[in-house]
Amino acid sequence: MILDYDLSGALFMNISHLSNENSLDNIRLNDGSDRLKDYFNQNMSINGLKLIYQLNDESLHFATLYVLLPELKKHNLINKLNNRNKDAINIINIITNSKITNTKKALYDYTSQSYSTLKWIFDTGHQEDGINDDYDEIMDRVCSILIKYYKDKTILNTVIKIIFNRNRNGYYTHDLIWALFESKDTEVLIQIAKYIQSDSKEDIKLAKKLLSFIPNIDELVLRNQYQQINTWLKDNKSFISFTGEYFQQTNSPIPYEVSHESKYFCTYYDNNSKLHNKLDNEKQKTLDSFSHLKVEYKELLSDFSFRLYKSDKSKWNVWIKLPLVQQIYIAVKNII
Amino acid sequence: MISINNTNTSIEALTMNYPPESIQYKVIRILTDSQHAYNYSSMNQLFFEADLRNSIITASRRLNSSNFSFKIFRKSTCNTNYWERTGEGGFLLKKNVLPTVAISDIITNSSEYGTECATAMVVVYYLALLEVFTEKRYNELFTDIYLMDWQHLDYKIGIQQYRYIKDFLPGDCRYFKNPDVDPLVPEWQGENTIDLGDGTYYGHGLGINTAEEIVDTLNRYRFEDANESAYLLESATRPNFKRLYSLSSD
Question: What is the ipTM of this complex?
């Protein structure tokens, strides 16, 4: 048995070499939360130190700490926990105590150390999504912080799975969808599109709603044209811009849209930098003229430009330098 | 500019039934003064829109004066005599309950209800429609009410967001966006409000405030090193007034 002290001074026992799973986790997973609480209360007076060791062990799952939190408060044990657990309890308190939100001060100290706690909460806690509403709310907020503040994209595919799972069961998804789209990552759209092929009607309905900005999505889904949807996303994902619209705001939000300007110049869309700054003087002038065109001409030119760029870059280099009127003529006639 | 059945009509003729301080007068004045041409099939169609906009504002003020509280969807509450609270926190009209009774109960027993701002806007519309439809017609039309968010508002209301518009009217739903919201409090990512026509806006949970006051409040819920302020979007969400007018007669 290896005994140690962590940075908070809390006793720490690394028992992960003895077992792949923590015994407190095992009791919760095999016998349920109530049995875990009973076990904890019965053994607290007999072998309290060992229980604290197990709680502070690195292998512990967040859900076990969450379930035992009332018991830890009852036995006045919070100060015996390590920094990770104390920080996690702080996050739980902030999220579940609505009074704290009415403040001008920062709600939470976003540091690199808190990132590791948040990541631990998500990595070890997401599989227990659905324990109760408060627990799910904690998962929602932790996801939001990891994605929006820490720009963590490693959790996005798991977040998508949680969203669709909850949706199938009629549970709340708005905040997770908001967090997912706040990633501004177009790869998530390709993952969402996979649910078009699901056997679940609820999955298909949600996927369609989230991808409603794709032209003719209703018809494509109706005809089960998943490949066309996927091709459209792959073709356009470099030019898709994030609008920040959500379901809270409108009945038909357009969270993403194709930047015709980016597609026209075959230049990656970047939410953080203006296209104008990436172009030389000549192309900047063309961009100014292009920006004043009607939407249908923008669509025509951007689609034609992208197809030409993919098929013959040297022809594209000639075409893109022509006056817009000539470009439109060639695009309409499709004669290059 | 307003035209009735493709004929330009003077503001005097259109406003003779409304006092100058009324919401209806303000609505018609803005439409008349606009560069944009607004066409109505009849004067009654225009008056219906003006009256419904007034009802939207009245409903907002009534809701604001009530004990209808702000709660996040996960903790939303309702009178379960009339509504079934769903797993996602919405309120579904129970079978064998009259829609007019259930909607009116939100004001009558307001302390039993609590939800987010998007649902509050949906409630505002259903409350406002009580004033312009007969009880019989209302109960025929809105039999499957689900109070949750914009997606679940009855399609017959024809709610739609209008982007990049020139004229904003009393009774419009306007959205204040808070892009740098602290991710710990996503409920402050923005605020749906009703334009009350006097330079103030009703937002559920915030009360009645000016645009500057709403922006100040939202900015308090940003993360610490945020650099983008909350702002009012140049768009408005509106019901389809013309469709509702056509549905209003039995």
Answer: 0.84
Q: Which backbone phi and psi does A2 adopt, to 5 degrees?
A: -105, 115
Report the residue from B161, B175, B182 with minimal CB separation from A107: B182
Chain A interface disruption, residue of B69, B70, B71, B74, most A CBs within 10 A: B74
pLDDT in tens, B19-42: 999 999 999 999 999 999 999 999
| B140-198: pLDDT as tens digits | 999 999 999 898 999 999 999 998 888 999 999 999 999 999 998 888 999 999 999 99
- The residues, ordered by sequence, that sit 6+ positions from B248 with a Cβ below 8 Å of its Cβ are B48, B132, B133, B137
**Per-residue pLDDT reduced to its tens digit, A10-59:** 444 444 434 447 899 999 999 999 999 999 999 988 888 999 999 999 99
The answer to whether B220 contacts A104, with C-beta atoms less than 8 Å apart, is: yes
Pairing of strands B69-70, B114-115: parallel
- The three-state secondary structure class of A155 is coil
Long-range contacts of A170-174 (CB under 8 A, 24+ apart): A170/B86, A170/B87, A170/B88, A171/A130, A171/A136, A171/B87, A171/B88, A172/A136, A172/B73, A172/B74, A172/B87, A172/B88, A172/B89, A173/A206, A173/B88, A174/A246, A174/A247, A174/A248, A174/B73, A174/B88, A174/B149
Among A residues 88-107, those touching chain B with beta carbons less than 8 Å apart: 94-95, 101, 103-104, 106-107
What is the per-residue pLDDT for A273?
66
